[in-house]
Hints:
The chain has 235 residues and is of the alpha+beta class. Helix content is 49%, strand content 20%. The protein has a domain at 97-217: Alpha-Beta Plaits, CATH 3.30.70.1880. The chain has helices spanning 2-32, 36-92, 126-138, 183-190, 196-202; strands at 97-107, 143-146, 149-150, 157-160, 163-166, 169-171, 175-180, 206-217. The longest helix has 57 residues, at 36-92. The termini are far apart.
Amino acid sequence: MKWPMYISITLVALVTGLLLTFQFRVSSRIEQGVPTGRAQELATELHQLETEISQLQSEVNDLGAKLAQATKGQQEALAAMEGELVKAKIAAGLTAVSGPGVEIILDNPPLQRQTGRPASLYVIRDEDLLRIVNELRGAGAEAISINGQRIVATSEIRYAAPFINVNLTRIVPPYHILAIGKVDHLQAALSIPGGVVEYLKDLGVRVDIQTHDKLTVPAYTGTRQHLYAKPVQRR
Length: 235
């Protein structure tokens, strides 16, 4: 009867010893933590990652600066292009403009009160309007219109009795000519002795010239199509 008891005590002691040994090893490992070599390896990897992060941040900052510069340059280029487009439209007469200038009113000779007939048989013709337009252009006029028709590079002033066509539009007297430019120069060009204004007055045409600090010349409203003229391709 004693042997089974001894065997049982021996087995309990053996199991208890094994448990104590296992617990001691685990505790030793926990106390030891990460091995020194592994800790140094992890520290090295951490340093490398921090260095890469710093380099990537520098690249991000550099690319951000370049993007901002490119955007700024694009905006400046766009603003410059828009400015050139505005200038081109003004030069082409496609935009209404305002500024100082002169207004010329031309009308055929008045009727005589007694006879009811014109004081002169002369009537204003297309070449008269052309001469006035040329005088104004020569004096530096930057925008001209006749009876609301903007004079552009392709405008025609053509006599088609009893009308005058401007931009394929019939106009009748009195003719209102507006010109924007340096007022003194425009007025002087129209007041030249023996010039077109004096010539028309001698023929009985009524001419009234007024100066304005600000007047508005309308935009060209016709259509332009270039079916045959093509830009030259540069090589």
